[in-house]
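Page 42, continued from yesterday. The earlier attempt failed because a stray header line got pasted into the input along with the sequence. Redoing it now with the clean sequence only.
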Amino acid sequence: MSGPPRIDAVLFDFGGVFTESPFEAARRFAESIGVDPQVMLDTVFGPYECDSDHPWHCLERGELDLVRAREKILELGRVGGFEADLFRVLAALARSTGPRQAFLDRARELRRRGIATAIVTNNVREFRDAWRGMIPVDELFNIVVDSCEVGYRKPDPRIFQKALEFLGGIPPEHAVFLDDYEGNVKAARLLGMHGIVVAPDPAEALAEFDRLVHTEDLRRSQ
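This time it went through. Structure tokens are written below.
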């Protein structure tokens, strides 16, 4: 009978793990203006289960700036008969709750135990200082892999491979990845990583994390 997995690194998404899921905030915004939430998500963020030429994906890869991406997304919304104003959606996302102390405590405990930590995020160049200012990035993480800086985004497997490479070549089977989007977690699992989906209520994900990483100290930090 095999023993528990050896975990040398834990990779975290940012939005949806350390803060409320941006998808939930976007859904609430859509409902507030009378637009079907899924239609809003598809228009503003594109097919998130894959990488594409949608303007939001180009923005997250650093290929467009925020103003140009907004213009293109407004055009997509007009085709659907509504105003898909990226700036209004992002303002709603900025009002989402966070940070989640339980995940901060776990990242801090991992560093104390000598387990490598990373943030692997699909993000926007213009937001870099804002999101990094929400949590003590330098204290809690060995590295940050930001899609707009490396030029590819989740679920592209290269972003996970890049993170493991930056951490010293850790094998995927010795790493855990947490994300609020199931498609991103699936991509990490296909590489051999242990994947945890963080739901809007993160209690189940936290319990799964504690079982996988095997630490009682983390439970006492809640």
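Notes: Residues 176 and 194 are 5 Å apart (CA to CA).
Reminder to self: strip header lines before submitting.
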